[in-house]
Specification:
Helices cover about 40% and strands about 0% of the residues. The chain is an all-alpha fold.
Length: about 60
């Protein structure tokens, strides 16, 4: 029998690499895969907010 893989959520902070990894919170926000409540918590960090602004994304407040 095969094992089921547990889906990993977003990283706690953006690694700033290009191209962005699949778990990047900024990429997940842009693709609409990030829960708004979780996004508020993740983007409370200044580093993540700056990266999201740079990508021209609306950060939930």
């Amino acid at each position: 029998m095969g094992k089921k893989k547990k889906k990993k959520g977003p990283k706690k902070s953006c690694c700033r690499s290009k191209p962005r990894c699949s778990r990047c919170p900024i990429r997940m926000l842009a693709e609409g895969r990030l829960d708004p409540a979780e996004a508020r918590e993740l983007f409370a960090k200044d580093r993540n907010r700056k990266q999201a602004k740079k990508e021209h994304l609306k950060v939930p407040s």
